[in-house]
Amino acid sequence: MAKPTHHLVDLTSTSDEDLTQTVISRQGSTIVSRYGDEIWNLAPYIAPRNTTEVRIVFSYRFRTGDRLTDSSNARLLASAKRFLYTRWRVASGKRGRPASATTLVANWTQIRKLIAWMIEEQLADFSQLTPDHCARFASSLVGTLQPSTIAGILSTITNYYELGDHLVDRIPEYPWNVESGGTTRLARHAHQSRLQGWSQAKTEVIPQRLMSRLVRTALDYVENRANSLLALRDQLAVHATRRLAQVKVAHRKSHPKGFSSIYATEAEYLQVKANHQSSKEERQLLAEHGYPSRPAASIELFHLRTACYIVCAAFSGMRDSELASLEVGCFIARKGFDGETLHWLRGTTYKLEHEPRPAEWMVPEVVGKAVAVATRLGEPVRAQGEKRIKALERAAKTRNLDEHVRAKIQLKLERARRNRNALMPIYHPSYGSVSLLGNETARKSLKAFAKMANMIVEQQDMDGVVNRDRIRPGEPWPLRTHEFRRTFAVYVARHVLGDIRYLREHFKHWSLDMTLYYARHDSGADRALINDILTERDELQSLIIQSWMHPHSNLSGVGGHRIAAFRNRGEVKTVRDMRDFCRKLGESVFIRGTGHSWCMASGNGCGGQGLYDAVRCTSCGEGVIDSTHIQFWKGIRQQQIDVLQCPDLGRPSRERSVDHLRKAERVLADLGAEVPPFKLPKKVRRAS
């Protein structure tokens, strides 16, 4: 990967004549874009492999029909180019470093909104912008875009102002009036670091019921259907090769000298013709596997690829760009420092990193099956990729190529080489190119998979949903790639709290001890992920404490009675934000879940015996039992009733069962469950 700022120069010392020829991007020794070009192609400097937006197109057509490259907009074009170039070269903002190429492309999309508004308002220079103009522009965005998108646009305007010393056409004063409200307040807060926490997060958490359905369907594809589908794929490939050969022979007999058609080449025509034919053997083969046609089987293969993506994403917490970085051989197993065998996915992380960094993500063993299936599934595509690399290498050696043509070939060759070992590649026959499953392709694939898996939202799934305009009962869950990471963090946090109710088998590898592997400085693990998990754990803990503080919340256990006494002590206390108050309370405790109670012991406590003897928690000063445990204590009560029905029950066992029964009934009474005391059966005298 090229170093983004090494080739950039100080524009203040560059003459106007040399400015247009200033190099923007290069691939090796080939210049890709220059300052004066209508398009800046930044592909050589964008690290994530699945990024599709790699160009800044200055000839973009606005809704009025104007283009920034029109002569009437020459000054705005010059100002926009200088801002973007400076933003790329000069350190600025809270991070104190230049923007990345990816950020630069995003900044162009954002500043373009302002430029379009300025053209409509007949403002020819940024120097004409006043805080009043900026406030009016901000107001024009309300109702058309999401608040977070608006904040990004207004933040870019602030960046433009802050770089004023390096610009010719600068914004004369700070663009946002402190006295103004509304969207300008949003702009002033746009540069503040985003608070991590459940209350701040906008990413949806996939509901437990739907996540269970999604992952179980994906696992069914990976574990039960993959071998049959891949065997069918291989058999169909043999038939396709034979069919194409037959079409070529027949075509050559009919047209020995060839003929012209609407297709670019004769080979393309023959391939299309062969694809529209099928033999009796093929149809029989498809019928044996339960498919009416080749397209139906192809759809199942697409679902299989998506299933591999889902399994990797759901059990690793990897971002979409990180999943796209996975290559053949990415699944590894090695012993940890405690001698236990752990499994990892090895890839690259990009977000929040100045440079791409190799990283690892801990996963359960089942992910290895998904990787193996994806490896086999992608073999034909990788073979096509190798053919494309060889063709591009031959084309690159052609003499007397135009600079722009050579640059295009070099960019395509570099991308093909980067994707040659990709775990989940996609072949595009129309272009002969290979891309990766991610971004838009992943979104479409996930949407189709969710529909196939019947992930229909029910009212019970709406708890905690952020965007209720996008997600509605009766409609399929609109699955997004970025939802997997936060959902993973929330579910692992629940597991760490002992509140796991979903696919326990696959989350058993996660415990608080696993944080050691992620926190060690000599580890290549993605440490940002464990921070996300612990943030979610802390937020879930604050929710638990908040439920305890509710005046009508029933609690049991000695610890629960202490909390109830504190809550009902008669002193009037007010807090501005109950959630924030509970977060602060949570800083002094660490709650663990046993399944039948919450444990707040900070020392040895019972030494963990309460995990196996639930009744011990009723008399423990560190144990709290709340309404989430009612069903468990009903189960304990019923178990003791069943035991007391045994005819050969001895006296010590009977006394123990009665003791456990009465304690369970006291807990249930404390929690408001209407359970009448069980009438003990009479003792059965044993015959002497």
From TrEMBL:
<dbReference type="InterPro" id="IPR013762">
    <property type="entry name" value="Integrase-like_cat_sf"/>
</dbReference>
<dbReference type="GO" id="GO:0003677">
    <property type="term" value="F:DNA binding"/>
</dbReference>
<protein>
    <submittedName>
        <fullName>Site-specific recombinase, phage integrase family protein</fullName>
    </submittedName>
</protein>
<dbReference type="InterPro" id="IPR011010">
    <property type="entry name" value="DNA_brk_join_enz"/>
</dbReference>
<dbReference type="GO" id="GO:0015074">
    <property type="term" value="P:DNA integration"/>
</dbReference>
<dbReference type="GO" id="GO:0006310">
    <property type="term" value="P:DNA recombination"/>
</dbReference>
<keyword id="KW-0233">DNA recombination</keyword>
